[in-house]
Design a protein that fits this description.
single chain; about 425 residues; alpha/beta; Rossmann fold; four-stranded parallel beta sheet; binds pyridoxal-5'-phosphate
Protein backbone atom coordinates (compact mmCIF):
# COMPACT_ATOMS: atom_id res chain seq x y z
CA UNK A 1 0.00 0.00 0.00
CA UNK A 2 1.25 3.48 -0.84
CA UNK A 3 2.27 5.69 2.10
CA UNK A 4 3.10 9.39 2.43
CA UNK A 5 6.66 9.91 1.08
CA UNK A 6 9.51 10.50 3.55
CA UNK A 7 11.22 13.12 1.35
CA UNK A 8 10.25 15.83 -1.10
CA UNK A 9 11.99 15.88 -4.49
CA UNK A 10 14.00 18.88 -5.71
CA UNK A 11 14.44 19.01 -9.49
CA UNK A 12 17.27 21.57 -9.18
CA UNK A 13 19.58 18.56 -8.61
CA UNK A 14 18.75 17.03 -12.01
CA UNK A 15 18.19 19.98 -14.36
CA UNK A 16 20.52 19.90 -17.40
CA UNK A 17 21.48 23.54 -16.71
CA UNK A 18 21.58 25.30 -13.34
CA UNK A 19 18.65 27.44 -12.18
CA UNK A 20 19.45 31.10 -12.93
CA UNK A 21 20.06 32.92 -9.62
CA UNK A 22 17.45 35.21 -8.06
CA UNK A 23 18.50 38.87 -8.64
CA UNK A 24 17.94 42.30 -7.16
CA UNK A 25 16.84 45.06 -9.54
CA UNK A 26 19.46 47.75 -10.35
CA UNK A 27 17.83 50.36 -8.16
CA UNK A 28 16.03 50.45 -4.81
CA UNK A 29 16.44 48.39 -1.62
CA UNK A 30 17.54 44.73 -1.73
CA UNK A 31 14.55 42.50 -2.37
CA UNK A 32 16.61 39.39 -1.57
CA UNK A 33 17.28 40.76 1.91
CA UNK A 34 13.57 41.46 2.30
CA UNK A 35 12.81 37.83 1.44
CA UNK A 36 15.00 36.64 4.33
CA UNK A 37 13.01 38.84 6.74
CA UNK A 38 9.53 37.73 5.75
CA UNK A 39 9.85 34.00 4.95
CA UNK A 40 10.47 31.13 7.36
CA UNK A 41 14.28 30.70 7.33
CA UNK A 42 14.29 27.02 6.25
CA UNK A 43 12.37 27.99 3.12
CA UNK A 44 15.18 30.32 2.01
CA UNK A 45 17.56 27.32 2.26
CA UNK A 46 15.13 25.13 0.30
CA UNK A 47 14.72 27.82 -2.38
CA UNK A 48 18.44 27.72 -3.18
CA UNK A 49 19.09 24.05 -2.36
CA UNK A 50 20.79 21.70 -4.82
CA UNK A 51 19.94 18.60 -2.74
CA UNK A 52 17.84 16.07 -4.65
CA UNK A 53 15.89 14.79 -1.63
CA UNK A 54 14.67 16.98 1.22
CA UNK A 55 13.37 15.18 4.34
CA UNK A 56 9.73 15.89 5.21
CA UNK A 57 9.60 16.70 8.95
CA UNK A 58 7.69 14.01 10.92
CA UNK A 59 5.08 16.50 12.07
CA UNK A 60 4.36 17.57 8.48
CA UNK A 61 4.09 13.92 7.41
CA UNK A 62 1.61 13.33 10.22
CA UNK A 63 -0.40 16.36 9.07
CA UNK A 64 -0.37 15.04 5.49
CA UNK A 65 -1.90 11.81 6.81
CA UNK A 66 -4.40 13.70 8.96
CA UNK A 67 -5.75 15.66 5.96
CA UNK A 68 -6.10 12.58 3.78
CA UNK A 69 -2.81 11.82 2.06
CA UNK A 70 -2.07 9.70 0.12
CA UNK A 71 -4.75 11.00 -2.24
CA UNK A 72 -6.36 8.56 -4.73
CA UNK A 73 -5.05 7.66 -8.18
CA UNK A 74 -7.86 6.35 -10.38
CA UNK A 75 -8.67 5.29 -13.89
CA UNK A 76 -11.32 7.32 -15.79
CA UNK A 77 -12.92 4.34 -17.54
CA UNK A 78 -16.27 6.03 -18.18
CA UNK A 79 -14.52 8.95 -19.86
CA UNK A 80 -12.50 6.53 -22.00
CA UNK A 81 -15.76 4.88 -23.10
CA UNK A 82 -17.53 8.20 -23.75
CA UNK A 83 -14.65 9.28 -25.99
CA UNK A 84 -14.85 5.96 -27.89
CA UNK A 85 -11.18 5.26 -27.21
CA UNK A 86 -9.68 1.98 -28.39
CA UNK A 87 -7.33 0.73 -25.68
CA UNK A 88 -6.22 4.21 -24.58
CA UNK A 89 -6.13 4.42 -20.77
CA UNK A 90 -6.68 7.64 -18.79
CA UNK A 91 -5.65 7.93 -15.12
CA UNK A 92 -5.92 10.86 -12.69
CA UNK A 93 -4.52 11.78 -9.32
CA UNK A 94 -7.22 13.54 -7.28
CA UNK A 95 -6.14 16.35 -4.93
CA UNK A 96 -9.73 17.57 -4.50
CA UNK A 97 -10.24 15.12 -1.60
CA UNK A 98 -8.10 17.32 0.68
CA UNK A 99 -10.14 19.55 3.05
CA UNK A 100 -8.93 22.63 1.13
CA UNK A 101 -10.46 21.13 -2.03
CA UNK A 102 -7.14 21.58 -3.86
CA UNK A 103 -3.43 20.73 -3.84
CA UNK A 104 -2.57 24.08 -2.18
CA UNK A 105 -2.71 22.53 1.29
CA UNK A 106 0.46 20.46 0.64
CA UNK A 107 2.71 23.51 0.82
CA UNK A 108 0.54 25.51 3.27
CA UNK A 109 1.09 22.78 5.90
CA UNK A 110 4.85 22.71 5.32
CA UNK A 111 5.19 26.50 5.38
CA UNK A 112 3.04 26.95 8.50
CA UNK A 113 5.13 24.28 10.26
CA UNK A 114 8.40 26.07 9.41
CA UNK A 115 6.92 29.44 10.43
CA UNK A 116 6.07 27.95 13.83
CA UNK A 117 9.57 26.47 14.11
CA UNK A 118 10.88 30.03 13.56
CA UNK A 119 8.92 31.11 16.65
CA UNK A 120 6.23 32.94 14.68
CA UNK A 121 2.67 33.07 15.98
CA UNK A 122 0.92 34.32 12.88
CA UNK A 123 0.97 33.47 9.17
CA UNK A 124 0.06 36.10 6.62
CA UNK A 125 -0.79 35.91 2.94
CA UNK A 126 -2.84 37.30 0.06
CA UNK A 127 -5.60 35.66 -1.94
CA UNK A 128 -7.95 36.51 -4.77
CA UNK A 129 -10.48 33.74 -5.46
CA UNK A 130 -9.55 32.13 -2.15
CA UNK A 131 -7.97 28.70 -2.89
CA UNK A 132 -4.65 29.73 -1.36
CA UNK A 133 -6.27 31.69 1.47
CA UNK A 134 -8.39 28.69 2.39
CA UNK A 135 -5.41 26.31 2.39
CA UNK A 136 -3.40 28.72 4.56
CA UNK A 137 -6.33 29.08 6.99
CA UNK A 138 -6.58 25.30 7.38
CA UNK A 139 -2.81 24.96 7.95
CA UNK A 140 -2.84 27.78 10.53
CA UNK A 141 -5.78 26.15 12.36
CA UNK A 142 -4.01 22.77 12.45
CA UNK A 143 -0.78 24.28 13.83
CA UNK A 144 -2.62 26.58 16.29
CA UNK A 145 -1.42 29.82 14.67
CA UNK A 146 -3.15 33.11 13.92
CA UNK A 147 -3.85 33.73 10.26
CA UNK A 148 -4.29 37.05 8.48
CA UNK A 149 -5.37 37.18 4.85
CA UNK A 150 -5.47 40.18 2.51
CA UNK A 151 -8.17 39.38 -0.03
CA UNK A 152 -8.64 41.59 -3.12
CA UNK A 153 -11.72 43.74 -2.41
CA UNK A 154 -13.43 42.68 -5.67
CA UNK A 155 -13.25 38.99 -4.66
CA UNK A 156 -14.01 39.76 -0.99
CA UNK A 157 -17.37 41.06 -2.17
CA UNK A 158 -18.12 38.83 -5.16
CA UNK A 159 -16.79 35.51 -3.82
CA UNK A 160 -17.94 35.32 -0.21
CA UNK A 161 -18.03 31.50 0.04
CA UNK A 162 -14.32 30.78 0.52
CA UNK A 163 -13.93 33.96 2.62
CA UNK A 164 -16.59 32.73 5.00
CA UNK A 165 -14.87 29.33 5.22
CA UNK A 166 -11.56 31.07 6.05
CA UNK A 167 -13.34 32.97 8.84
CA UNK A 168 -14.98 29.78 10.12
CA UNK A 169 -11.44 28.38 10.43
CA UNK A 170 -10.36 31.38 12.53
CA UNK A 171 -8.58 33.52 9.94
CA UNK A 172 -8.97 37.30 9.89
CA UNK A 173 -9.72 38.35 6.32
CA UNK A 174 -9.22 41.98 5.26
CA UNK A 175 -10.52 43.41 1.99
CA UNK A 176 -7.46 44.77 0.17
CA UNK A 177 -6.57 47.63 -0.08
CA UNK A 178 -7.10 47.99 3.68
CA UNK A 179 -6.62 50.58 6.40
CA UNK A 180 -3.99 48.35 8.06
CA UNK A 181 -1.07 49.36 5.86
CA UNK A 182 0.41 52.53 4.45
CA UNK A 183 0.02 51.40 0.84
CA UNK A 184 -3.59 50.39 1.55
CA UNK A 185 -4.46 53.73 3.18
CA UNK A 186 -2.91 55.64 0.27
CA UNK A 187 -4.99 53.76 -2.29
CA UNK A 188 -8.17 54.10 -0.25
CA UNK A 189 -7.64 57.87 -0.11
CA UNK A 190 -7.79 57.89 -3.91
CA UNK A 191 -10.75 55.52 -4.11
CA UNK A 192 -12.73 54.26 -1.09
CA UNK A 193 -14.05 51.40 -3.24
CA UNK A 194 -10.69 50.41 -4.80
CA UNK A 195 -11.20 46.84 -6.21
CA UNK A 196 -7.60 45.85 -5.32
CA UNK A 197 -5.30 43.39 -7.09
CA UNK A 198 -3.08 40.46 -6.13
CA UNK A 199 -0.04 42.75 -6.42
CA UNK A 200 -1.50 45.22 -3.94
CA UNK A 201 -2.56 42.40 -1.59
CA UNK A 202 1.00 40.96 -1.63
CA UNK A 203 2.42 44.40 -0.85
CA UNK A 204 0.02 44.76 2.08
CA UNK A 205 0.81 41.27 3.41
CA UNK A 206 4.56 41.99 3.28
CA UNK A 207 4.19 45.42 4.93
CA UNK A 208 2.03 43.88 7.65
CA UNK A 209 4.63 41.14 8.35
CA UNK A 210 7.44 43.72 8.56
CA UNK A 211 5.57 45.57 11.34
CA UNK A 212 6.21 42.62 13.69
CA UNK A 213 8.77 40.42 11.92
CA UNK A 214 9.55 38.31 14.98
CA UNK A 215 5.92 37.18 15.31
CA UNK A 216 4.75 36.99 11.69
CA UNK A 217 5.74 35.12 8.55
CA UNK A 218 4.63 35.59 4.95
CA UNK A 219 3.52 32.43 3.05
CA UNK A 220 3.59 32.42 -0.79
CA UNK A 221 1.24 30.07 -2.67
CA UNK A 222 3.15 29.29 -5.88
CA UNK A 223 6.08 30.16 -8.23
CA UNK A 224 8.81 29.91 -5.57
CA UNK A 225 10.89 26.74 -6.01
CA UNK A 226 10.25 25.58 -2.43
CA UNK A 227 6.51 25.59 -3.11
CA UNK A 228 7.05 23.25 -6.08
CA UNK A 229 9.31 21.08 -3.89
CA UNK A 230 6.55 20.65 -1.25
CA UNK A 231 4.02 19.76 -3.94
CA UNK A 232 6.12 16.81 -5.16
CA UNK A 233 4.31 14.57 -2.64
CA UNK A 234 1.64 14.39 -5.38
CA UNK A 235 3.92 12.91 -8.05
CA UNK A 236 5.91 10.73 -5.65
CA UNK A 237 2.72 9.07 -4.42
CA UNK A 238 1.40 8.75 -7.98
CA UNK A 239 4.54 6.89 -9.15
CA UNK A 240 3.91 4.30 -6.39
CA UNK A 241 0.22 4.04 -7.33
CA UNK A 242 0.59 3.64 -11.12
CA UNK A 243 -0.46 0.23 -12.45
CA UNK A 244 1.15 1.18 -15.78
CA UNK A 245 3.70 3.86 -16.70
CA UNK A 246 2.09 6.76 -18.60
CA UNK A 247 3.23 7.79 -22.07
CA UNK A 248 1.77 11.26 -21.63
CA UNK A 249 1.54 13.25 -18.37
CA UNK A 250 -0.56 16.42 -18.16
CA UNK A 251 -1.25 19.15 -15.58
CA UNK A 252 -2.44 22.77 -15.58
CA UNK A 253 -0.24 25.78 -14.80
CA UNK A 254 -0.94 28.91 -12.78
CA UNK A 255 2.47 29.67 -11.30
CA UNK A 256 3.62 26.07 -11.79
CA UNK A 257 3.29 24.38 -8.38
CA UNK A 258 0.55 21.97 -9.41
CA UNK A 259 2.40 21.01 -12.60
CA UNK A 260 5.78 20.70 -10.85
CA UNK A 261 4.28 18.78 -7.94
CA UNK A 262 2.77 16.12 -10.17
CA UNK A 263 5.35 15.82 -12.95
CA UNK A 264 8.79 16.65 -11.48
CA UNK A 265 9.38 13.31 -9.74
CA UNK A 266 8.72 11.64 -13.15
CA UNK A 267 10.73 14.21 -15.15
CA UNK A 268 13.55 13.71 -12.64
CA UNK A 269 13.56 9.96 -13.35
CA UNK A 270 13.59 10.71 -17.08
CA UNK A 271 16.55 13.10 -16.70
CA UNK A 272 18.42 10.49 -14.62
CA UNK A 273 17.47 7.77 -17.16
CA UNK A 274 15.71 5.73 -14.45
CA UNK A 275 12.28 5.58 -16.10
CA UNK A 276 9.70 7.59 -18.06
CA UNK A 277 12.28 7.79 -20.89
CA UNK A 278 9.63 8.05 -23.63
CA UNK A 279 7.03 9.99 -21.63
CA UNK A 280 5.79 13.38 -22.93
CA UNK A 281 4.98 16.07 -20.37
CA UNK A 282 2.37 18.70 -21.27
CA UNK A 283 1.76 21.93 -19.32
CA UNK A 284 -1.67 23.45 -19.90
CA UNK A 285 -2.30 27.15 -19.40
CA UNK A 286 -5.18 29.52 -20.04
CA UNK A 287 -5.24 31.56 -23.25
CA UNK A 288 -6.01 34.44 -20.89
CA UNK A 289 -2.53 34.20 -19.34
CA UNK A 290 -0.36 32.40 -21.93
CA UNK A 291 3.14 32.96 -20.51
CA UNK A 292 4.56 29.61 -21.64
CA UNK A 293 3.16 29.74 -25.18
CA UNK A 294 3.39 33.52 -25.83
CA UNK A 295 5.54 35.03 -23.06
CA UNK A 296 9.24 36.04 -23.01
CA UNK A 297 12.00 34.23 -21.10
CA UNK A 298 13.55 36.99 -18.99
CA UNK A 299 14.12 38.37 -15.49
CA UNK A 300 10.89 39.75 -14.01
CA UNK A 301 9.27 40.29 -10.63
CA UNK A 302 6.97 37.49 -9.45
CA UNK A 303 4.65 40.14 -7.97
CA UNK A 304 2.92 43.06 -9.68
CA UNK A 305 4.24 45.64 -7.25
CA UNK A 306 7.90 44.64 -7.73
CA UNK A 307 8.73 44.23 -4.04
CA UNK A 308 9.97 40.65 -4.46
CA UNK A 309 13.33 39.83 -6.16
CA UNK A 310 13.69 39.26 -9.92
CA UNK A 311 13.51 35.67 -11.11
CA UNK A 312 14.23 34.34 -14.62
CA UNK A 313 11.07 32.90 -16.09
CA UNK A 314 8.59 32.91 -18.94
CA UNK A 315 6.52 36.02 -18.28
CA UNK A 316 3.94 38.28 -19.85
CA UNK A 317 5.35 41.16 -17.80
CA UNK A 318 4.47 41.91 -14.20
CA UNK A 319 1.99 44.59 -15.29
CA UNK A 320 0.04 42.24 -17.57
CA UNK A 321 -3.60 42.14 -16.47
CA UNK A 322 -5.30 38.91 -17.62
CA UNK A 323 -8.98 39.07 -18.54
CA UNK A 324 -11.24 37.96 -15.67
CA UNK A 325 -11.65 34.24 -16.42
CA UNK A 326 -13.27 31.84 -13.95
CA UNK A 327 -10.07 29.82 -13.47
CA UNK A 328 -8.67 32.61 -11.27
CA UNK A 329 -5.75 30.42 -10.19
CA UNK A 330 -4.38 30.46 -13.76
CA UNK A 331 -4.49 34.27 -14.08
CA UNK A 332 -0.81 34.71 -13.38
CA UNK A 333 1.83 36.48 -15.49
CA UNK A 334 4.81 34.15 -14.94
CA UNK A 335 5.85 30.52 -14.45
CA UNK A 336 8.31 29.07 -11.90
CA UNK A 337 12.00 29.26 -12.99
CA UNK A 338 12.45 25.46 -13.11
CA UNK A 339 9.34 24.99 -15.26
CA UNK A 340 10.46 27.83 -17.53
CA UNK A 341 13.82 26.10 -18.09
CA UNK A 342 12.12 22.77 -18.85
CA UNK A 343 9.88 24.45 -21.45
CA UNK A 344 12.83 26.36 -22.94
CA UNK A 345 14.77 23.07 -23.31
CA UNK A 346 11.77 21.31 -24.88
CA UNK A 347 11.53 18.75 -22.06
CA UNK A 348 8.03 20.05 -21.28
CA UNK A 349 5.53 21.01 -24.01
CA UNK A 350 3.01 23.80 -23.45
CA UNK A 351 -0.52 24.36 -24.77
CA UNK A 352 -3.17 27.02 -24.04
CA UNK A 353 -6.99 26.83 -24.14
CA UNK A 354 -9.98 29.17 -24.03
CA UNK A 355 -12.35 28.88 -21.07
CA UNK A 356 -15.44 27.83 -23.08
CA UNK A 357 -13.82 24.68 -24.50
CA UNK A 358 -12.30 23.97 -21.10
CA UNK A 359 -15.60 24.14 -19.19
CA UNK A 360 -17.26 21.86 -21.76
CA UNK A 361 -14.50 19.31 -21.15
CA UNK A 362 -15.06 19.66 -17.39
CA UNK A 363 -18.76 18.98 -17.85
CA UNK A 364 -18.06 15.84 -19.87
CA UNK A 365 -15.66 14.62 -17.17
CA UNK A 366 -18.28 15.34 -14.46
CA UNK A 367 -20.96 13.41 -16.32
CA UNK A 368 -18.63 10.45 -16.81
CA UNK A 369 -16.73 10.27 -13.53
CA UNK A 370 -19.12 11.99 -11.08
CA UNK A 371 -16.57 14.59 -9.97
CA UNK A 372 -17.03 18.33 -10.64
CA UNK A 373 -13.53 19.62 -11.51
CA UNK A 374 -12.17 23.05 -10.51
CA UNK A 375 -12.04 25.35 -13.57
CA UNK A 376 -8.21 25.39 -13.26
CA UNK A 377 -7.98 21.58 -13.34
CA UNK A 378 -10.45 21.53 -16.23
CA UNK A 379 -7.68 22.90 -18.47
CA UNK A 380 -5.76 19.67 -17.98
CA UNK A 381 -8.91 17.67 -18.79
CA UNK A 382 -9.38 19.51 -22.09
CA UNK A 383 -5.78 18.66 -23.05
CA UNK A 384 -6.26 15.02 -21.97
CA UNK A 385 -9.34 14.68 -24.21
CA UNK A 386 -7.56 16.26 -27.21
CA UNK A 387 -4.47 14.10 -26.81
CA UNK A 388 -6.44 10.91 -26.12
CA UNK A 389 -8.46 11.30 -29.33
CA UNK A 390 -5.23 11.42 -31.34
CA UNK A 391 -3.49 8.57 -29.48
CA UNK A 392 -2.80 5.11 -30.86
CA UNK A 393 -4.00 1.95 -29.04
CA UNK A 394 -1.90 1.10 -26.01
CA UNK A 395 -1.31 4.74 -25.01
CA UNK A 396 -1.52 5.55 -21.28
CA UNK A 397 -2.31 9.12 -20.18
CA UNK A 398 -2.11 10.50 -16.60
CA UNK A 399 -3.17 13.90 -15.31
CA UNK A 400 -3.52 15.76 -12.04
CA UNK A 401 -7.03 16.75 -11.04
CA UNK A 402 -5.75 19.53 -8.78
CA UNK A 403 -9.08 20.47 -7.20
CA UNK A 404 -12.85 20.05 -7.10
CA UNK A 405 -15.20 22.74 -8.36
CA UNK A 406 -17.95 22.54 -5.74
CA UNK A 407 -17.56 26.25 -4.97
CA UNK A 408 -17.32 27.19 -8.66
CA UNK A 409 -20.99 27.02 -9.62
CA UNK A 410 -20.65 30.51 -11.13
CA UNK A 411 -18.13 29.27 -13.69
CA UNK A 412 -20.37 26.37 -14.73
CA UNK A 413 -23.52 28.45 -14.80
CA UNK A 414 -22.10 31.45 -16.70
CA UNK A 415 -19.87 29.65 -19.22
CA UNK A 416 -22.20 26.72 -19.95
CA UNK A 417 -25.41 28.75 -19.61
CA UNK A 418 -26.84 26.50 -16.88
CA UNK A 419 -29.58 28.43 -14.98
C1 LIG B 1 -7.46 23.98 -8.21
C2 LIG B 1 -6.25 24.68 -8.73
N1 LIG B 1 -5.49 24.06 -9.66
C3 LIG B 1 -4.39 24.64 -10.17
C4 LIG B 1 -4.01 25.91 -9.78
C5 LIG B 1 -2.79 26.49 -10.41
O1 LIG B 1 -1.86 26.94 -9.53
P1 LIG B 1 -0.32 26.60 -9.55
O2 LIG B 1 0.11 26.38 -10.95
O3 LIG B 1 0.26 27.83 -9.00
O4 LIG B 1 -0.17 25.43 -8.70
C6 LIG B 1 -4.76 26.61 -8.80
C7 LIG B 1 -4.37 27.94 -8.31
O5 LIG B 1 -5.01 28.57 -7.51
C8 LIG B 1 -5.91 25.97 -8.26
O6 LIG B 1 -6.67 26.57 -7.33
Amino acid sequence: MVTVPSHWYNIAADLPIPLPPVRDPDTGPSRIELLTKILPSVLIDQEFSGERWIPIPDEVRRMYEKVGRPTPYRRAENLERALGLKDVHIYYKFEGVLPSGSHKLNTALAQAYYAKQDGAEEVVTETSAGQWGLATSIAAALFGMRCTIFMTRASYRSKPQRRILMQVLGATVHPSPSELTEIGRKLLEQDREHPGSLGIAISEAVEYVLKEPEKRRYLPGSVMEFVLIHQTVIGLEAIEQMPEQPDIVIACVGGGSNFGGFTYPMIGMKLREEGFEKTRFIAVESKAAPKLTSGRYMYDHPDTSGILPLIKMYTLGKDFVPPPIHAAGLRYHGAAPSLSILVKLGIVEAVAYEQEEVMKAAQLFARCEGIIPAPESAHAIKAVIDVARKSSPGTVIAFNLSGHGLLDTDAYSKVLGIQ
